[in-house]
Amino acid sequence: MTLEYEKILSKVKELTNTAVSRQQQLKSQQEDIAQKLTSYAIDRSAISYSLEIAQEKTGGKLYAAEPHPAYAHEPLNVGVTAVNLPDTAVIIGGDGSQILPDRHAPYLYYLINIGVIIYYHGQQRAPDVFTKPTLEYPGIDWQADEGKFTSSAVSIQRDLDEIGTLADTACEQSGQTEAPVLALLDQRLLYWPIGSSNPKEDQNIVNQWIGALRRVETYHRESGPTYLAGYISQPGTSAVVNMLRALDIEKVDETTGEYLLDPDILMKRSAGLIDAALFAEILQPGERSTVFVNISANNQTFANQGQEVCFFYLHPGGLDKPIARVDIPRWLADDPTAVNQIHALIANQCKMAYPYVLTRADEIAVILSQDRDYLEKMIAVGMGPEFALRRSSPKQSGKNVTRSGTARFGE
User: Fold this and answer.
1) Which residues pair with 230 in a beta bridge?
2) Are residues 315 and 395 in the same domain?
3) Is the domain of 298 the same as that of 331?
4) How far is CA 155 from CA 159, 216, 304, in A?
5) Are 367 and 158 contacting, i.e. CB atoms less than 8 angstroms apart?
6) Residue 409 pLDDT
7) Is 81 a domain residue?
8) pLDDT in tens, 33-84
9) Is residue 18 part of a domain?
10) Does residue 295 sit in the same domain as residue 331?
């Protein structure tokens, strides 16, 4: 049965009216924030002071950003042009895909496939590509393995495999070349598991992630320029917006005598106001913002292990391309030469709308429907005739029939 649109037509009209009103409100708020960015473009001391007070008033739970001190010469409201593009470099892109466990299937398993491309910038050499598939299934002790076969657990494992494989490949390449090596991840570096409810397990996951960053850092210090960055397209974060809003933390309304800004507000994400919209009005194609340090409880965990995360915003080029965020570890952010090279290499990769190595890594990693069908045939044959005759659960079988087209009851 198709959706009866006439039954929700009035709600659709309400939705569109509300959305338009909300966009108008956001535009006004965005203009105020943009003006504040201009007013404090070079006043780092005022920003630092306000953030210190805001951190105190929120009990250390502030979510915001702070300009990195090594880039005090870069005004907050001016884009930075890409410079120092290396003549040669090795750029590595990694991505992953998965087949999630299906408890309605006759056998339970999951598959993670990591795709990696090694691109030789400035060299007359074709890229190298490889995949790293991992197939997991329950052991005899079902209860011991059960927690591994949830969608969230598999997604977390895929993320860990992505960063681990990318870090290992970067270290391997770093030992084979004197050119800079840039490993590019298709997500944030400040990673925290989503969907887990076990704090101890969360910390274990984060420790594994931080371990991958630390391996790259070791090669960077011992073997030469070895860079790691996370590329986030169309980010919805508001750390810089919150930094600017924190400037009101001690301001008082002259009429009421009350503070203009409730500290509790700074502990929450700014609904609708995002950094990307702010920098879309500032950055020209290929330009980046200054470098910021992420202020959050999660990043403090990273900082405690020497892997604090910083970031900058990037206009990837072309008037219709959305603003991206580039995450980098503090040990790279502290080095402007490294940041300039990372900026230039990523901007150069974005000539085709999105970093080339990430586009190719996705293509390499993706598991097609025919791949899944063939894998399941292999499993069924391997299980033998008795088990191969098993079918999906009645619930899933019924869904498959009804979703494939209309059918009469009793046929």
Assistant:
1) 185, 327
2) no
3) yes
4) 6, 23, 26
5) no
6) 47
7) no
8) 999 999 999 999 999 999 999 898 888 888 999 999 999 999 999 999 999 9
9) no
10) yes
Print the domain residue range for 374.
369-399
Q: Please, are residues 196 and 104 in contact by the beta-carbon 8 Å criterion?
A: no
Q: Do both 224 and 336 map to the same domain?
A: yes
Indicate if 339 and 389 belong to the same structural domain: no
Residue 118: closest CA among 160, 176, 161, 157: 176
Q: Are residues 381 and 317 in the same domain?
A: no
**Amino acid code (one letter) for 346:** I
Between the two ends of the chain, the Cα-to-Cα distance in Å is 18
Note the pLDDT of residue 111.
94
238-277 b/e with 16+ CB inside 10 Å = b? Answer: bbbbbbbbbbbbeeeeeeeeeeebebeebbeebeebbbbb
Tell me the per-residue pLDDT of 163-199, one tens digit each, with 9 for 90 and over: 999 999 999 999 999 999 999 999 999 999 876 667 8
Low-confidence residues of the chain: pLDDT under 70: 1, 140-147, 195-197, 252-260, 262-271, 385-411
Six token digits for residue 141 = 């002790």
Q: What are phi and psi of 365, to 5 degrees?
A: -80, -25
Q: Is residue 201 part of a domain?
A: yes
Residue type, 13: K
* 226 shares its domain with 314: yes
